Amino acid sequence: MADYSNKLYEQLEQETGVKTGYLKTGSISLAQTQDRLISLKRIASSLNVTGIPCEIITPKQVAQLHPLINIHDLVGAMYVPGDALVSSADVSLALATAASRNGVQIHERTSVSHVLVQKGRVTGVETDRGQISCQYFVNCAGQWAEVFTPPLHSFPSTFLSSAAIVDPDGRIYIRNWQGGILSGGFEKNPKPLFTEGRNQLEIQNLQEDWDHFEPLLSALLRRMPDLEALQIMQLVNCPETFTPDMRCIMGESPAVRGYFVLAGMNSAGISYGGGAGKYLAEWMVNGYPSENVWPLDLKRFGSLQSSRTFLRHRVMEVMPLICDLKVPRWDFQTGRQLRTSPLYDRLDAQGARWMEKHGFERVKYFVPPGKDLLDLDQSKTFYKPDWFDIVGSEVKCCKEAVCVIDMSSFTKFEISSTGDQALESLQYLFSNDLDVPVGHVVHTGMLNEQGGYENDCSIARLSKRSFFMISPTDQQVHCWSWLKNHLPSDSNLTVEDVTWKYTALNLIGPRAVDVLSELSYAPITPEHFPSLFCKEMSVGYANGIRVMSITHTGEPGFMLYIPIEYALHVYNEVMNMGQKYGIRNAGYYALRSLRIEKFFAFWGQDLDAFTTPMECGREFQVKLEKGMEFLGQEALLEQKQHGVYKRFTMFILEDHDTDMDLWPWWGEPIFRNGRYVGKTTSSAYSYTLERHVCLGFVQHFDEKTGEELVVTTDFINQGEYEIDIAGQRFQAKAKLYPFSSLFTQRRRKEEVELSGYQRE
To answer: What keywords would UniProt list here (predicted)?
Structure first.
């Protein structure tokens, strides 16, 4: 978005005749620590392959670019020569001028009192000057939400062509401004405003607060000591909006069609405004943006994130985090324990360490007795983490005995009808055939018209007219909205969100069958309970437990969907019975390692609305040959006939030292024969192969023209690959088939080597 904004603003003055103050100065992001420099190197690797020139420079080079910068405590920096400065007010005027010339009417000092809605769709707005009919309404109200005060600081000086400075460790930024410089920052102790819902009528400065600004002023003077002798002209104190996850909000409301939002820019409105506006315009005109913007989608939030207390506490954490170093797998500390499983206290007492997803607490791993909890909680690194051995032991138990993972956060819907409406509707909305015998589970995609995954889920047929749908945790609002907008308005068709009704336990491992058979007094052998099967059973004293032969990892085992009132009883029974089989608790880090080494793609990480089943090896989950119409069918038929332009691929790092080298996490550039071809989408250490495994998409571009070409199996298999981790490339072996095949090959290789050794 920032890159598009930069290109838009560069040509805006010429197009409109309105001066925007556009000045290409470049930017320098400073690093005071090695970890900060690693973070900048990761960013630089990503920027360079996406066409944004960028380089990591030394402190001496910083001084050459900006002589007044104090470099004594720096270890390096990132220089982006194409970055520029503009006057935000002038850019707004230029955009408004261009819009007016194209027929847009702008009504200043006009307040909107109501958005008019009929049958769930926008029909107009009520203003203090009358009513305006419209099909679309875009809420860009910005600060008229929960807000904070990032102070700005201005000094006179002469840095008209100096690069803008960002000093995240000092929490400040410095740029030229009208013949002087402007500096501000993101303090550690922000002040919330308008927490009772009262807001100022229009943008205006707040009262100066020099005591509050003093830490930022001190950081500025340390970075540029020569400013001590200069005069401070003004301290500007204005409100700014921040969101609960530091990402802006855009997209269509899940409740009202035609009601769009673009707000919460987290103090980066001018940087992202051009690109964000482009994506939202595409969304309104075409029904979808040209890039995957799920991380920014309004529907990533639910009503739980709109609590005033939650917002007040969370955004007080968010604003300082903008400058804080964010290492992989960091977690928010505020707004926690909001949604929990009934087993939360029980698991917490056994050493569970927690992370949060869509407000739901999920276990990362369990700290064994005797381990230093404080050290583990404060372990933050780009290298091998302190939980490495803990997760390894959980993975080992999943493969050799049996583990329990609480996966209650999964989104769950029940869809039923009085006749065949449920089946007929779902057959159109989902790519796989759902007309299966009662008790069978189908893994399927909920696709859009382009064949991309709006959702990736498992659906169990409970009865002839009833279905149980399990989706990713953060799909709760998005999936509900998609179903509501695409299912027919039929009083005989019912959709119910039952996420809160069931606790989900994942029983993983070869001994899971022994535990479950003893607790249920029912045969659980493959003959009686085949793969992808669902059956209501008794477990212990509890009836009505939905048991499914699926684990989402490729390992043997079962998912237990338990009515919440039975959750503690069933968990205790499982743990007690499992003692003789070596049972233990496990967390999502172990699950991640297991699913990645089995080449399982997860929605929101690997799959999105721009990924089709044909691109990720899931043709077998599509009913193309059955003559049934479904959403996205035409796009998939096109891909089947002409091929795909990207291919989901697994990479095994070959020359990577797990103990000494930086780890891959996600988003690392992939190179084939020295040319950039894509990025990783998820990564994990495989405790089975004792190597890192990365998943990602490979694309094929003509070397001369840059034209996108079809990605064939031969193209994948015949290339030499490298994964770029913070500027250092590591050789990788590309694979298009699951790890089970690799394990077989590895065992055969070991047997051959062993037999060869014995012969010698």
So the answer is: Mitochondrion, Transit peptide
